[in-house]
Amino acid sequence: MSKGIKHLVSISDLTTPEFTSLVNRAAHHKKIFKSGQPVSSEISDALKGKLVAMLFSKRSTRTRISTEGAAVYFGGHPMFLGKDDIQLGVNESFYDTTRIVSSMTSCIFARVNSHSEIQQLCEHSSVPIINSLCDTYHPLQAICDILTIKEAFGETKGLKLAWVGDANNVINDLAIAALRSGIHVSVAVPRGIEMNPTIVDVAKTVSQETGASFEVTNDPKSACTDANIIVTDTFVSMGEEAQKQIKLQQFSGFQVNSELTKLAAPNWKFMHCLPRHQEEVTDEVFYSNNSIVFEEGENRLYAAMAAIEAFVIKKELA
């Protein structure tokens, strides 16, 4: 059914020019939005009279606000479909729900549990699917993260990004996004945790294309040495609450603190996609002048705008 429809599933599915275009368009729409001036009818009427479906199986703050804001920016009407609002998974199959929802809407922003759910949506939907988070990928976060880095440093090429934490959906897309932007990537994960081999393979290929280096280590200090950007995320993802104590023991020594940031480049910045927990990063770092977490959070809005423009309104990516 979705033949000929382009979906946003992961950064790995994009070419470097396509990804760069998304970041640039996010910056473009941010400039318009922050100017305080009325937007042109070309923007405000682009989705006039159309619904933007938000199929969310998980709680959300930034994703919900940014998606609704982006839909309104283009004149669309956002419709939130939470797990307790519709029949999905209760009295109706994924296939039936997808067919019905896509028949009435311009696109579906999907914040779901498993990557297989995103794949099912893409297979059966008659409109573009925007992956707003699954257990394997988080492309909108990667778009906003590179925009945030670009704003902080002016130029991305040659920077070093250190990831300190779990091998999760955020780094799966951020690693590829950073490499496509010419940023060297060093991923530090605890022993016993492995990055997704598919992501590692894509990262190595992109690394060869752009000349940016990629490595996976078990040593946070090594990763943070001379890093311009230090990034972490939750150690216990949604759905892993039962494993919390085991995971916290596993992540001993991985808290981002002054000991790690002293190893970084003088101009280091700290990023976190939120919500944060004390075990991941100290207040000293999180609320420091080097932290750009709140700029990063705001930029989710402009990433959603860029995604709607490219995949729903169908303005050329590159």
TrEMBL record:
The molecule here is called ornithine carbamoyltransferase
- Identify the PANTHER family for this entry: ORNITHINE CARBAMOYLTRANSFERASE, MITOCHONDRIAL (PTHR45753), ORNITHINE TRANSCARBAMYLASE, MITOCHONDRIAL (PTHR45753:SF3)
The UniProt record lists the Aspartate/ornithine carbamoyltransferase carbamoyl-P binding domain at: 6-151
Give the lineage: Eukaryota, Fungi, Dikarya, Ascomycota, Saccharomycotina
Which Gene3D superfamilies did the record assign? Aspartate/ornithine carbamoyltransferase
> Looking at the UniProt record for this protein, which Gene Ontology cellular component terms does it annotate, in alphabetical order?
cytosol; mitochondrion; ornithine carbamoyltransferase inhibitor complex
Any one GO molecular function term: ornithine carbamoyltransferase activity
Which family, according to UniProt?
Belongs to the aspartate/ornithine carbamoyltransferase superfamily. OTCase family.
EC main group? transferase
